[in-house]
Amino acid sequence: MPHSSDHRHPDWDQAFGADTEAIAPAHILEHSQASAPAAGESRTAWRSVVEAMVFPIFFAVMFALCYVSAFHNPTPRNVEIVVTGPESSTSILVDQLASKVEGKFDLQTSTDTAAAIERLQGREIAGVIELGSPMTVHVASAEGPVLVQAVEGLTQPLAAAQGQPANIVDHAPLAPDDPTGQALFYLLVVSTIIGYLTITVLAQVAPAMKMRPKLGILAGMSFIGIALSYLVSSIFVGFYAASFVENLAMLAVIFTYTFTVGLVSILANKVFGHAAIMVVMLLMIFLNFPSAGAAIPVDFLPGFWSGVSNFWIGSGAMDAARSIVYFGSTGVDKGLFILGGWLVLTVALLVFTHRPKKTSKDVAAHAAH
Question: How far is CA 201 from CA 194, 206, 214, 279, 280, in A?
Fold first, then answer.
């Protein structure tokens, strides 16, 4: 029976953009009958390769620029601490420390310890130093171990001057199996990847898919991906020592965040085309994670990153999730406002860019009427 002398798949050349002779000499490829590529085709292939290398270079530069600039020197910046006790004692102590901690801590005084602790639990301040014997330090470790260490570091010399250790009281402890408090951050990272990767894959395998099924797939993948990540991570860190309702509310926030990330990816694909992946990574990876206030508390970030955290989507989602899980939803409104703002803005821009364009036939038909 006659057979073809070319054993290659008919779509081989289309898949790799050039004949196989561009990879190996003709005498090595058995039964090869293809001719060498023209010089113009070779130049086109190399141009595509060079253009494709822009993405890994972009990734390397932006990763170093954003992550290193944000995390290289975590230093407290105007961290608010209230010193409570008799007015004469607190004023003298604050006056003595003011010059030493200027720019790092914002020390305030109060005679009402209960009111100061309420502010701590309301996420308004970072700690309370209660003068007395022994000296008591009130903290909320759910805000971040780095922040707690800074407050304790400020207090230890004061307690040592009294000849006794400071008594530490934690008003928002982290889950026993998550002493670093990073589990929520990892869930945020996974959720971000689910959101933009779902849309990136759809853009490759179904570029002509209409908006409605695309949104349905995004919603389904957001739900499935978050549920799987949450359940798998619970094997190691449990359920954040929070109630069922609190976990459910936190997952609702993370789902909204994931879906919004996907919407941003859809918008970027519509506006920027092939460059969308770099735009999405800039927004959701390079600006999002350093400013989220998870790996490093916001009060320890440099000025630029601290400012970005006031309105960036990851910071809003992280802040809302942390409020729900560790602070009984106290202060959750700030994070929800940021997250909701991104959702509304993205939907509005999608509606604006998705409006069908009028063709010449439409214009002519309208003029006829």
Answer: 10, 8, 11, 16, 13
In this structure, the number of other CB atoms found within 10 A of the CB of residue 58 comes to 16
**Nearest alpha-carbon partner for 138 in 150, 152, 124:** 152
CATH 3.40.50 domain span(s) along the chain: 79-170
Provide the whole-model pTM: 0.82
Strand 105-110's sheet: what is its strand order?
105-110, 79-84, 127-130, 136-139, 167-170
Note the pLDDT tens digit of each residue in 139-178.
999 999 999 999 998 888 888 877 778 899 999 999 999 9
The C-alpha atoms of residue 349 and residue 203 are separated, in whole angstroms, by 19
Q: How many alpha carbons fall within 13 Å on the CB side of residue 327? A: 25
Least Cα distance to 230 among 347, 94, 325 occurs for 325
Region 79-170: CATH code = 3.40.50
Burial 82-99 (b: 16+ CB within 10 A, else e): bbbbeeeebeebbeebee
174: left (phi over 0), alpha (psi -120 to 50) or beta: beta
Q: Measure CA 197 to chain center.
A: 14
Element at 358 (helix H, strand E): none
Judged on CB neighbours under 10 Å (0-12, 13-18, 19+), 244 is: exposed
Instruction: For residue 84, list its beta bridge partners.
Output: 110, 130
